[in-house]
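Quality-control log, excerpt.
Job 1 of 2 completed; input and output follow.
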Amino acid sequence: MRGVTTSAPRTWTITPTPVGHPDAVVLLRGYLDELISRYYGRPALESEIVQEMGDGSDLVAPHGVLLVARDAGVLVGCAGLRWLSPEVGELTRVFVTAQARRGGGGARVVAAAEEAARAHGVGRVLLNTRKDLTEAIALYRRLGYRETDPYGDDPYAELWFAKNL
């Protein structure tokens, strides 16, 4: 896949980044730390973060891509895409750091992921989330994602969304 670079107002850049790159690791660990902490209502354990990190092969070509967002060079977020079929992608690991929230960052990383999906020939994007992630649910609805039938085997998924690009 050719690189997708998106610039938004301010100085945001969003670029494909290898999952093992130190910047990607920092963001994915931040994402998992927050996700796990919210789920259990306590700080995430290192062992839980390591377990959920996996090897990231689902976000590496030809299976997917990880996009990393920076604002003036500072890490601010990420989003991943898995290719479920030639026509369908799955949005995953959408994260914006606490310092970068409330300024449209979530919409920026999702828009970059949608652009990457289109560049890959994908016409439909699916995603799943948990009911306690109310900010994410509101973002996805605001961006045109609509509830759909359950798919996949994610044991934490409680809501499923889809959007035709």
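Job 2 of 2 completed; input and output follow.
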Amino acid sequence: MKLLFDENLAPSLVPALADIFPQSEHVSRIGLGKAPDREVWEYAREHNYTLVSKDSDFHELSLLYGSPPKVVWICRGNCTTRQIEFILRNKLEDIRSLVDNPESTYLIIL
């Protein structure tokens, strides 16, 4: 499973979660840090990433266009990078189900 972390999440999540989400990337590390959402969306679609964001923008795109890419929307207020890491580790099976189910397009983590 490859995740593409949006710019509103810390780049340090990539190495912190490499044991369970190998080959993941952060938009800033691939030159998309300030890119429009549609450009990030297309990159994720073309490179088989699941998008992870704290913004509703990618969730809204998934409602309009379906998948790919699949979207994990983290609906939490201010929290630390460590807390985000913990959340994603605890939701590993849910994320795996999202990726493996061809009919699923997004996962909302409250």
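Post-run check on job 2. Residues 3-109 form one domain.
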